[in-house]
Amino acid sequence: xxxxxxxxxxxxxxxxxxxAQLAGSLGDGAFLTCSVLFFTRIVGLTxxxxxxGLTLGWAVGSVAGVPLGHLADRHGARGSxxxxxxxxxxxxxxxxxxxxxxxxxxxxxxxGSCQTGLAAVRQALLAALADPERRTRVRAHLQSAGNAGxxxxxxxxxxxxxxxxxxxxxxxxxxxxxxxxxxxxxLHRLPAVPRASSPRTGEPKLAVLRDxxxxxxxxxxxxxxxxxxxxxxxxxxxxxxxxxxxxxxxSALFVLNTVVVVLLQVRVAGRLASIGTAxxxxxxxxxxxxxxxxxxALSAFGTSPWIAFAVLVVGAVVQVFGEMLQSAGTxxxxxxxxxxxxxxxxxxxxxxxxxxxxxxxPVLLSxxxxxxxxxxxxxxxxVFLAAGWAMGxxxxxAQSTRxxxxxxxxP
Length: 411
Hints:
This protein is mainly α. The protein has helices spanning 11-43, 47-75, 77-94, 101-129, 132-163, 166-188, 212-224, 227-242, 249-269, 275-298, 305-336, 343-350, 352-372, 374-408. It has two domains: 11-188, Up-down Bundle (Growth Hormone, Chain: A); 207-408, Growth Hormone, Chain: A, CATH 1.20.1250.
């Protein structure tokens, strides 16, 4: 089934999408920096209650992404993105009403569903507004804008942490909610995207749930996305508990990662020429992520703080290049294997990898890496290596099923 879209000059939609990404990420950066302390110090929840609530919220969000993406396919991606951005704003403000663990879980589920749905629909918008050969490069621009926003927002959140008062934290929540209102305004200025036609007779509404090759690709991507809690949870705990590196190393590695992605992600994505190139990128990313795990493990040996710091920096540099290759490669794969008229539901399904990594990653990595030490790092690196290698065969399987499906439509 083919959609015909009258595309305007692609630069303007790309700039609007990047501005929307920057606005939302700025608010998210401030929110993520200090939300946990707000819930524990101001609201009075225990760390265990906060952890469980966030895990359940992202778990529900991972399920909600597919139906929300499907609704966007049927009712229009631009309008759906605007509504979901406004709903995300409301979900942030809903946290301010939380006073019990049950209300926190409900608010977290609302928040996770809105965030996951918005991410899926924005991907569908990008797929519709950018030519196929430019989609991954534009997506790289969005990633750079998002990282810049997170960094700026984290700085603003740090000011609230320094003040450590209820008004300071409330200001951050209002800022985050306002940022998604701005996101909605920017998304509304994008060109309208035609709705997809209704499914053919006998065709399932949520076809992605029956697409086993795409499910395998999504699973492998979810495994590789464990690099996200690796950077935000496992490495900070490892530095503090297992190495002699200075405490500020945690912040230094975060800044290093952010700066490198902002400066180089677009250039890395520009090397993509085909879905085969994308699969090879993902394979190389697995090798680099394995090497970074080895470096992080070695940082615990020895007593010199500066040697530990140097080894951690080497590991972080290798890790961020693996991250950029994995990101660019999987973006292209996720777009290219999705039917043009079902990008919303397919991107919603592909995006579950982020929710899964956020939900189970912190507990899993804390257990494996912090609890097991060197063997845990080697096991994690081997998992990255295997997932990166397996992406190539999985993509070839998915491509073969699409050739068969296309041939079956020929009269």
